[in-house]
Amino acid sequence: MMLVGEMRCKETAQIAFKAGLTGYLALATLHTNNILNCLQRPENLGIERALIADTLLLVLSQRLVRSAVGGRLPVYELLRLDETLQDRLRRQLATDELFAPYPGLYFRSIAQTAERMLHDHLVRKEELEPILPIDSESQQ
User: Fold this and answer.
1) Sheet-wide strand order for 58-66
2) Mean pLDDT per 10-residue segment, the chain (140 residues)
3) Which residues pair with 77 in a beta bridge?
4) Which residues does residue 140 pair with via DSSP β-bridges, in sequence order?
5) How far is CA 72 from CA 57, 123, 135, in A?
6) Euclidean distance between CA atoms 121 and 115, whole angstroms
7) Which residue of 67, 75, 77, 92 has the fewest C-beta atoms within 10 A of its own C-beta?
8) How far, in whole angstroms, is CA 8 from its chain's centroid?
9) What distance in Å separates the CA atoms of residue 92 and residue 9, rounded to the nearest whole number?
10) Count of alpha carbons within 13 Å of 114, Cβ hemisphere only?
11) Contact 111/132 with Cβ under 8 angstroms?
12) According to the 3-state scheme, what is the secondary structure of 96-131?
């Protein structure tokens, strides 16, 4: 296993992705605005899309919010890269084509997670407002 605190430069990104290619479980952080940028950021650092496709398995994006029971809880987005998404990455598709829905796509958005947390009374609506717009019909 390899843990990379943050991928900020080409050298660090190359080390992490090559470790993943050789069979290591490489965990790393990236500072991006959303989960879609997590696939673009390594490319901006000089990592080829084919290498990203061959090594990246799961992307998690999170924001922390105050919980109803004290402390903080993550509100997250989750994307699993399956063979279809990996193939789309290799073919250099544009972002809208890359994430066009297909059977088997596993993507959970921050909005879906937030709605579930509201439903389960884990957070209050007010705590989620800075992160995303919440439907007025949602439970508090």
Assistant:
1) 58-66, 72-80, 106-108
2) 92 94 93 86 94 94 88 92 92 86 86 92 91 55
3) 61
4) none
5) 27, 9, 22
6) 10
7) 92
8) 17
9) 22
10) 24
11) yes
12) HHHCCCCCCCEEECHHHHHHHHHHCCCCCHHHHCCC
Q: Are 128 and 65 in contact (CB under 8 A)?
A: yes
CA 106 to chain centre: 11
2: β partners: 26
CA distance 24 to 28: 12
Contact assessment for residue 61 and residue 40, using Cβ atoms and an 8 Å cutoff = no
The answer to whether the CB of 101 falls within 8 A of the CB of 121 is no
Give the containing element (helix H, strand E) for 1.
none
As a whole number of Å, the CA-based R_g of the chain is 17
pTM assigned to the model: 0.80
